[in-house]
Amino acid sequence: MKYEDIIKELQNKIYKPVYFLYGKEPYYIDLVLDYISDNILPPEEQAFNQFIFYGKDSQLANIIGQAKKFPMMSNHQVIIVREAQDIKGLTTAPTKDKPNMLAAYAANPLPSTILVIGYKIPADSQTKIPATFIKALGSKTVTFESTPLYEDKIPGWISQHVKSLQYQIEPDGIALLAEHVGNSLNVIASEVEKLIISMPAGSKNITAAMVEKLTGKSREYSIFELQNALSTGNSSSIVKIAHNISIHQKDKIIYSISQLFVFFTKVLKCSISKNKGNNQELAMEIGVNPYFLKNYLSASSRFNQTKCVTAISLLREYDLKCKGLGSNDDNSELFRELIMKIIYL
Known about the structure:
Oligomer: single chain
CATH topology of the largest domain: Rossmann fold
Number of domains: 3
CATH class of the largest domain: Alpha Beta
Shape: elongated
Number of helices: 17
Order of helices and strands: HEHHEHEHEHEHEHHEHHHHHHHH
């Protein structure tokens, strides 16, 4: 089930006995946990019928024991388990000889109990929850996997998130914020909140200058300005920005290469598209804000299909080199070398 569907059902007071929320993107897991914590039971019932467990301090047997109890003068009791990844044996694959305790409860849950489990997987972890465990939770359990957004989807998410808060943000501000925070939705939401708090009373538009002030990052030397320089063929600007990134933003080099990969992929799509002449359709096809389309059109006139394919091949090669595969050179040198090769395509 999708996040939006879960919230819609909860708003319509359609409750399921067990919710298992898991994944590497904690943002949506926390949203569901917080919504259930704040909205299912009225405040006067929460003291007697709402229980919050934290993984490090909890035993699964105690949680299941509480789930089997009836509510006190209420239709429901709510049990919220946060940081459930710290509970030993929680997601162990069940066997005939050793059933999983949570799966056994989920097969026959108490209808008056709403048991909600938030299981966060670290972004760099190779941990995978056994498919047999997910299947064993059965049809009475809502399972939701919260996966990180790809970096090229982050600008669109920022725009929609700000809009949902009844504010607007300039496209350049979106680009700068996306570069600053990466793809952590919790961090993005926190930074947007800071921006809104710092805005003058009555103002509804977040400018690029506001984002620049918050992040301390200059637009002049951002990866997006490098893309703009590549689009126009301004060699001196390209070299200047690439040098700045290689020296002062060394931790962003692999990220910058990935962004250039996305950029040239979209330039290639733009150059072969049949929608040229229809900016709205073309922007939708290649997946960019119409505001930025002119940059891709400009780039497609400078980089034909052959040059785009070569650039993409170079980016793949140098991405691997910067990750230590096939090269021991310093990433700063590799990045400058890559950009020079792209300039002279």
